[in-house]
Amino acid sequence: MMHSIKYVEYYDTKEFLIDPKKELYTSLVLRKHGHVNVSFFNLPCSDKLAGTGAVSVLLHNFPYGSQPILHGFGVALLVLNVCLFGLFCALSVIRYVKYPEILSLMYKHPVQSLYLGCFPMGFATLINSSLNAYQTHELGNNFLYALWGLWWFDTVVALVVYFSMLYIMITRQNHSLKDLTAVWLLPAVTPIVPATTGALLARAIIPISPSHATITLFVASILLFLGLGLTFMILPLYMLRLITEGLPPHSMIISKFLPVGPCGQGGMAFVVIGQVFAEMAERETSSNPLLAEPQPWILLGVLSGFFLWTFGIWWILLSLSAIYETFKSQRPKFAVGFWGMVFPMGVYALLTWQLAEIFNSAFFRILSAILSLVVFLLWGSLAITTIYYICQDHGALFNAPCLASCSNPEATPDRMRQKTRESLGDENC
């Protein structure tokens, strides 16, 4: 028998058709799985992995202390990160294959879908940490080229997410300046992290194959310019939104840290790309006149990285001031969105360490150590708090906002918006 089709208004997205039978089925799926977030590469896991990867790299590059011990902790975090990555990725694939209706709801959601960009970013941090392990323990050229192959896979995924998610935002979702948040940056910054990874791999590959290193560096430069170009188109809009509408609501205040990410990661990419171009010029691996002298490349990379480092100071100070004022007036409830502070601050600390190495500056070295310690303490406190809340009520911590309309068909758009803010926390809304 033919059954009726009804329209459902869904959290500021364009109206789409939902079959009542499918809606009931998805609702049952939701209840069966305790409303646990079925999209692994949403904030609850993706930012944890990216942040953990940044902590692993920071341990490897920490300027003080016993290097073997720090490297050992870095490798331990790498193993933990790989295990979590594989586990949650497998769970996501199983859930989406078993319940494909959820996938359609997820990519139509104007917030949750943007976190698909965290997949290539989190995967790139695994490659970075593995590259550090390769250089420390001399794991061999086969291992290096395995990482190189994984980087090409990550690059393709990053470009697909970069273009497809922006197209979906334009054609499948409704957005407005008033609702603009820093989460809009996620698809834009997706290529920047693989760009840094590509530059680091190119440096390691130069002694083995200069031609492979040149290709890798060329692609990494493209990724960097794609990511930063779109980022610097979105940031003025975000600044306009802050000036005209004020600070985000208290439940979304941690999102203020997101712009620090492209500043730190983009600056690090510029510095490393400049260093690798300079090394290629010194080795005379190419007859191209652009690679005749190494100094211009070093200067260009350092100046670009230092510009982004100073630009990041503004966002850090603004974020800290806004968070202090918000916590003083109305402290937000803990949510997984708090993990959004770890990765941006981690990559900013890495950029500070890079500048310390280049300038041979005690100031930057001490500052990088202080920032690294802040990131370590932040990661540890968030890990302990998250484990505590998971033991108390994991369902409340890892809600899937894209299923809000199915779990409560009577919910209004305002209620769904509020539920999304509470479940995803500060950064996702």
UniProtKB/TrEMBL annotation:
Major localization listed first in the record, in broad terms: membrane
Entry-linked InterPro entries: SLAC1/Mae1/Ssu1/TehA (IPR004695), Sulfite_efflux_TDT (IPR051629), Voltage-dep_anion_channel_sf (IPR038665)
Species in which this protein is naturally found: Rhizoctonia solani
Protein name, UniProt field: Sulfite efflux pump SSU1 [Trichophyton rubrum]
TM region(s), chain numbering: 69-94, 114-131, 143-170, 182-206, 212-237, 257-277, 297-324, 336-356, 362-390
Biased composition (Basic and acidic residues): 412-429
GO MF annotation list: sulfite transmembrane transporter activity
CDD domains membership: TDT_SSU1
Cellular compartment(s): Cell membrane
Family of the protein in this entry: Belongs to the tellurite-resistance/dicarboxylate transporter (TDT) family.
Keyword line: Cell membrane, Membrane, Transmembrane, Transmembrane helix, Transport
PANTHER family: PTHR31686, SULFITE EFFLUX PUMP SSU1 (PTHR31686:SF1)
Spans annotated as Disordered: 409-429
GO CC annotations, alphabetized: plasma membrane
Membrane topology designation: Multi-pass membrane protein
Pfam families hit by this protein: SLAC1
Alphabetical list of Gene3D superfamilies matching this protein: Voltage-dependent anion channel
